[in-house]
Q: What sequence folds into this?
């Protein structure tokens, strides 16, 4: 993987995370379907973290632990 690909992918992932969070925060009360969608977003965030870990491992780095 080259640096340009990683940079573009990270930018894309950041935008996706922002979009996912905005959608959920846009409402004060959440219906069952919105809660389900939130769970799907949490799953996607987990997938994103895994993808980032794989990309960083390829560069000899690792994700910081929270």
A:
């Amino acid at each position: 993987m080259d640096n340009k690909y990683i940079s573009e992918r990270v930018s894309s992932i950041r935008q996706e995370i922002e979009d996912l969070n905005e959608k959920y925060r846009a409402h004060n009360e959440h219906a069952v379907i919105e809660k389900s969608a939130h769970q799907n977003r949490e799953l996607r965030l987990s997938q994103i973290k895994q993808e980032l870990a794989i990309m960083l491992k390829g560069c000899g780095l690792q994700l910081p632990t929270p």
